[in-house]
UniProtKB/TrEMBL annotation:
<feature type="binding site">
    <location>
        <begin position="16"/>
        <end position="17"/>
    </location>
    <ligand>
        <name>ATP</name>
    </ligand>
</feature>
<feature type="binding site">
    <location>
        <position position="247"/>
    </location>
    <ligand>
        <name>ATP</name>
    </ligand>
</feature>
<keyword id="KW-0143">Chaperone</keyword>
<feature type="region of interest" description="B">
    <location>
        <begin position="248"/>
        <end position="463"/>
    </location>
</feature>
<dbReference type="GO" id="GO:0005524">
    <property type="term" value="F:ATP binding"/>
</dbReference>
<dbReference type="InterPro" id="IPR037196">
    <property type="entry name" value="HSP90_C"/>
</dbReference>
<dbReference type="GO" id="GO:0016887">
    <property type="term" value="F:ATP hydrolysis activity"/>
</dbReference>
<dbReference type="GO" id="GO:0140662">
    <property type="term" value="F:ATP-dependent protein folding chaperone"/>
</dbReference>
<dbReference type="InterPro" id="IPR020575">
    <property type="entry name" value="Hsp90_N"/>
</dbReference>
<dbReference type="Pfam" id="PF00183">
    <property type="entry name" value="HSP90"/>
</dbReference>
<dbReference type="InterPro" id="IPR020568">
    <property type="entry name" value="Ribosomal_Su5_D2-typ_SF"/>
</dbReference>
<keyword id="KW-0067">ATP-binding</keyword>
<dbReference type="GO" id="GO:0005737">
    <property type="term" value="C:cytoplasm"/>
</dbReference>
<keyword id="KW-0547">Nucleotide-binding</keyword>
<keyword id="KW-0963">Cytoplasm</keyword>
<protein>
    <recommendedName>
        <fullName>Chaperone protein HtpG</fullName>
    </recommendedName>
</protein>
<comment type="subunit">
    <text>Homodimer.</text>
</comment>
Length: 540
């Protein structure tokens, strides 16, 4: 630029000052006001946030003279000739005289960090020269990795770039690099990490996909993916979004909404391909991020079928491995009308839960769901190929119609008169703690278990809501008793003798069911006293 160019390009903002500039914005108002951003040198004007003075020294190509533009940002500027030896041979030099409290911006690491994060991929190489006699060090080569064809990028290149955008030191488990063309054009370079980010379950956690427009960084707060895909790292570079649009306007842009939908669908599609082509590699991704992806089953109705196909589960038939819902469907038994599941916070305890005994006896597979989100998505009216999800701890088990394996004999369903009388006594004794006491068709080895009523809330969901302070008053559970269990038969045979002892036993049965369900007895001291009295009676 020559002196006239400097006045034309930089004089507007310097003459106006902050107050005048903001008044101009306000006078235009509405969407036209937002379009002023980028037209009046806001980016250049931001230099005065850290500099008490800014010099712009420039020489126009083909001209011998050079000029210097200077301003303190307070509303005035000067333009004067400058010795050609102090000016670049051609081009422009911007000099910031940093204020005392902004000296950190002159530190090398801060300069490199700013260049790489804000302008590391603009189509111009950027070098750093610390001292006049030092060799320049290239900070950015002006070539954006995502603009190159995939065949020209090595796995090492991808890994290095992934680490630079993610701040992690692992290798990506999945790399997605493509360019979308059509109504809207944009490039995508996305990575699925192989390890969990430390803040994966932070309640304020948002996505970490960066938005670029024509290789210029815009924001990392555009929420380019749904929250249940917040573990994905990378960027989207759009050719259609305007550079001079504010971040708030970008967030509401229909173009961005289309990009979000396309990128989300593409990543899920790539995960589906990986699940089919390399199941072992996909299972590693699921083990790391499955608990987060399952949030989408609760939040994203539109993509629920895809997420159900991606989901993998530990089950009573998986022998420690993972099973898909397609695997589960292939093993559904005759007359089985639902997909059964058990929720909790400990996989080992779930696998040994007494509520599973009747299902195991009939070879009915049960999903074991140990993540907190499981208690929510299974209750959201979801189904898989027409079969609803049903908790094994809620309502009656309805196992009578499912045949036993060949060679097995069905136990006598009818309870003896003594057992029936004992159940009535237990129900009367526990009237303050349970809503009902009934015989169970789900128990084969255990004496008792607790379940929720048919219309009640699943017990694990009720516990989670209670812990968060959002649950209604807890409903009384149902105590189911195995009428064929040796302990129950012997207790029933005692008849009406020693009412105090029978009351202790009834309470202990309820305590036992609570412990098996992963809870503490409601009254620990009472439990200890009852147990002591029963043991004392049993001693000679």
């Amino acid at each position: 630029m020559n002196a006239a160019d400097l006045a034309d390009a930089l004089g507007t903002i310097a003459r106006s000052g902050t107050k005048s500039f903001m008044e101009r914005i306000a006078s235009v108002g509405g969407s036209e006001g937002t379009q002023l951003i980028g037209q009046f040198g806001v980016g250049f004007y931001s230099a005065f946030m850290v500099a008490g003075k800014v010099d712009v020294i420039s020489r126009k190509a083909g001209e011998a003279e050079a000029a210097i533009w200077s301003s303190d940002g307070l509303g005035s500027y000067t333009i004067a000739p400058i010795d050609v030896e102090e000016a670049p041979a051609r081009g422009t030099r911007v000099v910031l005289h940093l204020m005392e409290d902004a000296k950190e911006y002159a530190e090398r690491y801060r300069i490199e960090q700013t260049i790489k994060s804000q302008s590391g991929h603009v189509p111009v190489p950027i070098s750093l020269l610390e001292k006049p006699d030092a060799e320049p060090v290239e900070i950015a080569d002006g070539a954006a990795l995502w603009t190159k064809p995939r065949s020209a990028v090595t796995e090492a290149d991808y890994a290095d770039f992934y680490r630079s955008v993610s701040g992690q030191f692992d290798d990506p488990a999945l790399t997605l690099h493509y360019r979308a063309e059509g109504r809207h054009e944009y490039s995508v370079l996305a990575f699925v990490p192989s390890t969990k980010p430390f803040d994966l379950f932070d309640p304020d956690r948002s996505g970490r996909m960066k938005l670029y427009v024509n290789r210029v960084f815009i924001t990392d707060e555009a929420e380019l993916l749904p929250r249940y895909m917040r573990f994905v790292r990378g960027l989207v570079d759009s050719s259609d979004l305007p550079l001079n649009m504010s971040r708030e306007m970008i967030q509401e842009s229909p173009i961005l909404a289309t990009i979000k939908k396309g990128v989300t669908g593409k990543i899920l599609s790539e995960l589906e391909k990986r699940a089919t082509a390399d199941s072992d590699a996909y299972l590693k991704i699921w083990e790391t991020f499955g608990a987060v992806l399952k949030e989408g089953l609760y939040e994203d109705y539109e993509r629920r079928p895809t997420l159900l196909n991606l989901a993998r589960f530990k089950t009573t038939a998986s022998e420690g491995g993972w099973r898909s819902l397609a695997d589960y469907e292939s093993s559904i038994k005759e007359n089985q009308t639902a997909i059964f599941y058990a929720t909790g916070n400990d996989l080992d305890r779930l696998a040994t839960s007494p509520q599973l005994e009747g299902f195991r006896a009939r070879g009915v597979e049960v999903l074991l769901l140990p993540d907190q989100v499981d208690s929510f998505w299974v209750t959201s009216g979801i189904d898989y190929k027409g079969k609803p999800f049903k908790s094994v701890t809620q309502g009656a088990a309805d196992l009578g119609l499912i045949p036993l394996p060949e060679g097995s004999t069905a136990p006598d369903a009818a309870a003896s008169e003594q057992v029936t009388s004992f159940l009535s006594f237990v129900k009367t004794t526990l009237d303050d703690a349970v809503s009902d006491v009934r015989t169970s068709d789900r128990l084969t080895d255990s004496a008792v278990c607790l379940v929720a009523s048919e219309s009640g809330m699943d017990r694990e969901l009720e516990r989670l809501l209670a812990a968060s302070g959002r649950a209604p008053e807890a409903a009384k559970p149902v105590l189911e008793i195995n009428p064929r269990h040796e302990l129950i038969v012997k207790l029933a045979a005692l008849g009406d003798a020693d009412a105090d002892f029978r009351a202790d036993v009834a309470r202990l049965l309820f305590d036992e069911a609570q412990i098996a369900d992963g809870e503490q007895p409601v009254d620990p001291r009472g439990f200890a006293a009852r147990l002591a009295r029963v043991i004392t009676r049993a001693l000679p």
